[in-house]
Amino acid sequence: MNSHVVTGYPLDNHRTTPIPAFAQFAKAVHDSPNIDYLWLWDELSGWFPGQLWSPENTPAAEFIDGNSTYDPFVQAAIALAHNPDANIRLSTDAIRSAPAELLRKVLTLSNATTGNVVVAVGAGELRQTKPFGYKRTEGLQRLEDILQLVRRLYDEPQPWTQETNHWHLKNATIGNHRPDKRPEFWALGGGPVLLDIAARYADGFEAASPQAIQTPEQFAETVNALRQQVESYGRDPEAFGFGIWSICVCHEDPEVIDKVLANPIVRYFAGQFGRLDQKRWLDEGETPVMPDGWHYAVKWAPFEQSDEEVRRIVDATPVSMSRKAYHVGTPKEMAKLHSEFVEAGARFVGWLDMTPLALGPQEGLESLRRADEMSALIKLPAGVVA
């Protein structure tokens, strides 16, 4: 058994999903033998503009409002009330977070479980910031602030004073009590500045695959380089974690996979986010859908896109590009690929399967079953998965 890798599966974050149904699904994820983490995201809006979020494109649109979301920290508390020994992973951004308040929330969750709590913090997205009065351009500075201040607040319970990029803490303390297990704060995203911040202050680093990091070989290069950076700051590289968000289309039937990849919502996502660096499409024989220099986190404002622009993106994204924008295959094929990511250094793999989005929420439990199967396989000793 490969005891170094853990896996996670996302919980529904839509407010139109009744809390009892959410709690029931959280229990199903927790009861899955090979899924280690209940996984939640901090999103103020969904991924798909109104003209795309329709029953013709996703059966979920008949009863789910894609832009009405729950607070993931409250959701995590609800999930732990029903599963008090669960492991929790959350993601949030540094722009909408305050260091003391974020740490207090996380310590509250840590006291609610015998398991682990991990929070991945990113530099923010335009769609989560601009509409609500935040400045996306402050993202990396605020990420540096958050990661260093939550660490110091945890490590030094006596009052202290420090001024950072955007915060002036004076005689700051959140008290002496600490949970049995220390929560972890990982950096989420990419780029040299973010990786340097992660090396100095974070407990780990994770990124989307194949969108940001495409292959196990590329991931291995990132792991090796970042471990050297961590060590250069006098920290233990062996204690630093690495993970991927596997954005995938997984099914046993190739015809079903073809149907999912041709779905307008799936193609819209592929055209804009399939490669965070649009130039990379050229090396793969595809014509980029978005302009040169376009990165979704700093450019994408879905509710500013016209109906014509949304249709253009979908129409300009061929199924061949859609197929390359995701990890695609049967559970065994996916397990083989992701075992190579594990060998390259991944200690967390989160499964983000697009199949329920395209085919309907009734596919959710089957998707969870496949994720559990893949999780079991990648935990086998290296080289066993064929």
From TrEMBL:
Pfam families: Bac_luciferase. GO terms for molecular function: oxidoreductase activity, acting on paired donors, with incorporation or reduction of molecular oxygen. Residues 35-346 form the Luciferase-like domain. Keywords: Oxidoreductase. The lineage of its organism: Bacteria, Bacillati, Actinomycetota, Actinomycetes, Mycobacteriales. It comes from Mycobacterium triplex. It comes from the Bacteria. This is Luciferase family protein.
